[in-house]
Amino acid sequence: MNIIKRVRLKNFRCHDEFDLDCDRPVTLIIGENGSGKTSVLEAIYMALRGKSFKAVDRDIKRHEADFFRAEIDLYDARKIIIRYSEQPLRKEFEIDEKKTTRLPKKNRYPVVLFEPNNIYLIESSPSRRRDYFDELYKQINDGYTVILGKYNKALKQRNDLLKLETVTKDDLFSWNILCAQYGVKLREFRNETIKKINKYITENYQSIAKNDDRCSIKYTGKNISENEYLKELEDCFNKDRALGYTTFGVHRDDYEFMFNGKNADGSASRGEMRSIILALKFIEAKILEQETGLKPVVLLDDIFSELDEMRQKHLIFNFKDYQMVITSTNVPADMQVNKNL
Ligand SMILES: Nc1ncnc2c1ncn2[C@@H]1O[C@H](COP(=O)(O)OP(=O)(O)O)[C@@H](O)[C@H]1O
Ligand SMILES: [Mg+2]
Predict the structure, then answer these.
(1) By mean pLDDT, which of 4-8, 43-47, 224-228, 314-318 is the weakest?
(2) 107-124 tens-digit pLDDT
(3) Domain boundaries, the chain
C-alpha cells in the first residue's frame, strides 16, 4: 500500500536539510505554523505529479541558496531526484539514473491533496472551482491536459483578435472552430466525471453527517454538438467585441454544489459544506483508483484544525487503505508522530 518510502530535501523552502521516513501507513508531521510542513507535501507532490501545487521552482529554492534538491525514494525501489539550480539555470528530474526536464507521463502517480482552503470551495469563485476540477481531470486522464492546453491556446488567439478595433466575424472563424472542437470534448469529459462523482456523493455524505440530506454537483456546461457550440460563439460576436474577450465557453462554465435540491452556497451551513467537501475527497480517491488502477497517495495539509473530532476520525478511517501523509500543528487523538519540526 505504501508508495513513498523516504523524503530528503536540500535547500527546499525553509529547509536547509530535511529527512523523513514514511515507513508507516500514516506519516504525521507536526510543527508550528511556518515550520515547513506544507513544503514537505509540496516536495512529495512534485515527485509524483511533476510540478508544485502552489509555486514555481524559483520560489521553492531556499532564499540564501542557489539550488535545491528533493530526493524521494519509493517502495518499488525507484528513486526520484528533482534538481534545480539558477546559475546556470537548470531543472531536471532523475529517475533511476535517467535524466529529463519534465517528469515523464509514465512516472506520474495519482495524488489526493486536501488543503485547508478546499473547505471553502463551495463559496469561492467560479475560477477556483474550475481550477480545482481541472486538476482532478488532469490526473484522471492525460488527454484532458492536452486538450485543455490546446483550447487555452485557441482561446487566447481569439481574445487577442477581439481586442483589435478592426476585428470582423470572419477573422475569428478558424479560432471559433478550434474552440468548439476542443470545448465540446472538455465538456463531455467534465460531464462524465461529475456524473461518476454524483453516483457516490450522497451516500458518502450521509455516512459522514449521519442523516438523510442529499447532495450533488451540477456542472453548468451542457453537452452540445460542435455546430451548436460554434453558433453560440458566433452569436456572442458583438458582445465579445465590445468587452474584448470571449464570454461563451468552457472557461466560463461553473460547478454548483446542490444540497437538498438548492445551491449549497446560501443554503448549507458551514459544517454541512465541510462534510460535502470531505465526501468529495473520498470520491476523488475512489475515482482516481478506478480510472488509473493505482492507489493514490493522500496528502492532508493542516486540515485537522478545520474539522471537528468526528470528522477527523471519519477522515482517517475512510482513507485507511491509502498511504497518508498528514501535517498538523498539534497531535490528533490516538496518533503517533513520525516527525516533529
Ligand atoms: N524559498 C524560500 N526560502 C526560505 N524560506 C521560505 C521559502 N519559501 C517559504 N519560506 C518560508 O517557509 C515557511 C513556510 O513553510 P510552510 O511549509 O508553508 O510551513 P507550514 O506549512 O509549516 O506553515 C515560511 O516561514 C516561509 O516564510
Ligand atoms: Mg502549511
Answers:
(1) 314-318
(2) 999 999 999 999 999 999
(3) 4-109+298-340, 118-274
Q: Which of 7, 10, 14 to mutate to test the pocket of ligand 1 (most atoms within 8 A of CB)?
A: 14
- Residues 245-269: what's their mean pLDDT? 97
CA distance 36 to 28: 13
Do the domains 4-109+298-340 and 118-274 sit in the same CATH topology, yes or no? no
HEC-encoded secondary structure of 10-39 = EEECCEEEEEEECCCCEEEEECCCCCCHHH
- Does 153 or 96 have the greater pLDDT score? 153
Q: Considering only 66-75, 239-248, 304-313, which range has the smallest mean pLDDT?
A: 304-313
Give the up-direction half-sphere exposure of residue 163: CA atoms within 13 A in the CB hemisphere: 6
pLDDT value, residue 336: 67
Percent pLDDT > 70 in the chain is 99
- Position in ligand 1 atom list of the atom nearest CA 329: 22
- CATH ID of 118-274, from 3.30.428.10, 1.20.1050.90, 2.30.42.10, 1.10.1670.10: 1.20.1050.90
> Does the Cβ of 31 fall within 6 Å of ligand 1?
yes
Nearest alpha carbon, ligand 1 atom 27: 34
C-alpha cell at 105: 507521463
Distance CA 324, CA 28 (A): 8
Ligand in closest contact with the CA of 65: 1
Over its C-alpha atoms, the chain yields an Rg (Å, rounded) of 22
Query: Architecture of domain 4-109+298-340 in CATH?
Result: 3-Layer(aba) Sandwich (3.40)
